[in-house]
Amino acid sequence: MTYVNLQLNPERYTGYTGPSARRIWEAVYSENCPKYSSEEFCQEKRVLYKLISGLHSSISVHIAFDFLLDEANNLWGVNLELLYDRVLSHPERVKNLYFVFLFVLRAVTKATDFLEQAEYNTGNLEEDLKTQSLVRQLLYNHKLQAACPIPFDEAKLWQGESGPELKQQIQAQFRNISALMDCVGCEKCRLWGKLQVLGLATALKILFSVDNQNLINQQLQLQRNEVIALMNLLNRLSESIKFVKEKGPNAEKIMEKRTHSTTTKSSL
């Protein structure tokens, strides 16, 4: 088993672009969300597309926020044009970013009892105690409870005669997405991609455990790597939304000015 310090390997621009990167995302969507916009598909399948789209948007935000602006001088900063082109200019992608954030928040609140008792042992007693304290602060934060009472009624999802089949199908699709991430040529991109897909799969695992009374199954068990992935995903999504709120208005103003300037020149 290999341990990686994520703080030393932040999610950022890596130079992994072009046809290879596009093919991975095209495969993720085409193999797992065919005809995702069609009304003939059930709510569960539309939820899956929104989750993947929201995760994709979050990854794009982090790439734009920590971008290599000048390779010669090793200058890093925010690429507002990329942020606008990849995310802000597509309202649906922004909505899906918020949706997946609420989805993961909902899962975390549902798994409060388990997450509070989970082991966060690294061998550093001081850091372990700090981590346990921070987890409890998160789980019992009144803002968290108020922000995510019921973003959607998961008790109505994956129920009925087709419920078990849909659950198995979605779990298989996430295994497929994780396998597709193995095809990513960039090691750091592959690391963050698989970690966040596992985090999303863990959120689904938690909400799959919700019974008809909207109560979490007492038999819920999460592995250590699932808890780590879930918490890291929540951090990534919350940071993405923070970046969008902070930099979004500036990015839109800059792009509006450029569009206006281009239109003016064209009319001359």
TrEMBL record:
Protein origin, superkingdom: Eukaryota
Catalytic residues of the enzyme: 186, 189
Gene Ontology terms: biological process: protein folding in endoplasmic reticulum
Membrane topology reported for the UniProt record: Peripheral membrane protein
Cofactor: FAD
Principal subcellular localisation of the protein: endoplasmic reticulum
Pfam families named in the record: ERO1
Cellular component terms per the entry's GO annotation: endoplasmic reticulum membrane
UniProt KW keywords: Disulfide bond, Electron transport, Endoplasmic reticulum, FAD, Flavoprotein, Glycoprotein, Membrane, Oxidoreductase, Redox-active center, Signal, Transport
Classification via InterPro entries: Ero1, ERO1-like_sf
Cysteine pairings via disulfide bonds: 186-189
Keyword Cell membrane belongs to the record: no
Localization annotation: Endoplasmic reticulum membrane
Residue numbers binding FAD: 12, 14, 25, 53, 56, 86
Quaternary structure (record): May function both as a monomer and a homodimer.
Similarity comment: Belongs to the EROs family.
Name of protein: Endoplasmic reticulum oxidoreductin-1
Protein's organism: Zingiber officinale
